Amino acid sequence: MCLIIHKPQNSTVKKALLENAYQYNSDGWGVMFSSEGNINSLKGFGLQPLIKTVKGLQDKEIFIHLRMRTHGSVDLENCHPFQVTEGMLMMHNGVINNVPDHRTKSDSAIFAEMIKEMISKNPDIIFDQGWQSLVENFINGSVLVFLNQQGYFTILNHDNGIEWEGLWLSNKYAWDLWNPREEVKNTHKVTSYYSWEDSWNWDSDINLNFLQSLPKDELYELICNEPDMVYEAIINQ
After folding, report:
1. Are 174 and 92 in contact (CB under 8 A)?
2. What burial class does residue 113 get, using C-beta atoms within 10 Å of its C-beta: 0-12 exposed, 13-18 middle, 19+ buried?
3. Is the pLDDT of residue 99 over 90?
4. 231 and 135, same structural domain?
5. 227 vs 89, 176, 184, 230, 232, CA distance in Å?
6. Strand-pair partners of 192
């Protein structure tokens, strides 16, 4: 699922945001930015190295990716961003189901490999609205960010994200500073955390039909917060 944070040059990423997001997305991180005509990528593991890296780039426009593994190994090769051609990087948030399964590579890594030849032939295709619409349909609600060495970028499915304190974040389910959560008890005797804006009916049984009826963003949030409950609903269908 993951989280992408876009920090414009005149904005600041607070330590509290990174700490909060890292709780949900601790399977590696990456940062991408352009500087003096060059494209730059930094990757690593651990909260403190992430905080230190971002602190050192507060004067730049950057994109930060925090990974929550869904496919592939937990290693630097699967940390974002991915190079899609010389002078261009890509970050992804979500799950791309229309790619081949691989034992060690993530769906994001495989998708980056799939589009390399196309983008190498025409790097500016990422700004073409027709191409964007085609890719948005293919990735089915996921978010993609492309950044080139000149500092130009495009965000596919931009409106799936949220503007917050001068930043843009790719979702609302992989962090929760945007709306503090309240602790409640559900009928399955499991402690759950949800915002007052959530529309889940905890008084009804959690079954496969209920899961299939949820909007995608709410289903993603439920998977993040209550994976055991979702698993039980699926195996008990």
Report:
1. no
2. middle
3. no
4. no
5. 31, 17, 17, 5, 9
6. 184
Mean of per-residue pLDDT scores for the chain: 83
| Backbone torsions φ then ψ of 57, nearest 5 degrees | -120, 20
Same domain, 130 and 76: yes
Pair 124, 221 in one domain: no
pLDDT surpassing 50 at residue 64: yes
Confidence of residue 98 (pLDDT cuts 50, 70, 90): confident
Strands, sheet with 167-169, edge to edge from the N-terminal-most edge strand: 38-44, 29-35, 62-66, 3-7, 167-169, 162-164
d(CA 21, CA 89): 22
Distances (CA, A) of 26 to 8, 68, 101: 23, 6, 22
Query: Is 143 a domain residue?
Result: yes
Residues in the chain, total = 237
Residue 177, domain member (yes or no)? no
Distances (CA, A) of 16 to 3, 13, 31, 67, 191: 15, 8, 18, 17, 24
Residue 227 pLDDT class (50, 70, 90 cuts): low
Whether residue 206 sits in one domain with residue 161: no
